[in-house]
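Can anyone check this?
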Amino acid sequence: MAFSFPAPRSYPSSVEDFIILSLSQRQPLSAKELFGEVKRHGVDVSYQAVHKKLQELQKQRVLSSDGKRYSINRKWVLDAKVFLEKMDSELLKSVEKAERKEAVCLSFDSYNDFGTHMLREFAKERELEPGGVCVTIQKHFWWIFSVSKEDYSLLKKLGGSGKSYITCEGRSLVDKLLLPVYKKFGWKIVTGAVSPYDYDLVVYRDWVHQVFYSPSQKKFVERVCGEVSKPEQLISDFHQKYFENKGKIKVIIFKDRELARQLRADALQRFKKK
């Protein structure tokens, strides 16, 4: 169903908007009075243009007239109210349906794209629930050597809440180099924790994220973690080679309140043993 009448806006911008606004505050008004009201709002329009709009609005049954003065047609108001309430109800159902869908799968061609997306998504989640607990279970720290200043700010913002937790095996030199960075930004971390999963796991609010690395990505990460023996080896050429390394990373996202609660509780148990 489409509107057979114009919908007024909260911030009037058209002649129709200002006519309806004026009549909602005081009615009935004559065409001359409405012309004065529209001009008072700073709208550059002629009397003839205002009179023409009044005739159009009356024809659309938005306004009624006794021949000399105009009023808002209450039936138009009621029709608009019913229509908008129905639209709002349908939109809410659409949102609920979207949240109930079983899973969403995202695919990334590079590690850099993956890291940037995850940081920004969790920043949005933090805005929705500022006090929420974010838990990640991973084999290696997500490499942040080449992220932007904006992403560094997000990493700091997420850690600054004091409710962002990471459990990580963290045995390689690369992980040991990254550990103080995450800690500096406020993340609570347990290292030496062997993950029970063959994928990285992130839990925030009622959402569960499973991160799967393609064989080529996984092989590359493990090779680098095994070969790097000193910080000097992490040169700019390596950064570019790594972050442009092609190999799919897939993230499966689904909503399950009870599972998220249990996974979060299991991960946080590791911090109580510290």
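Reply from J.R.: I decoded it. The CA atoms of residues 55 and 227 lie 80 Å apart.
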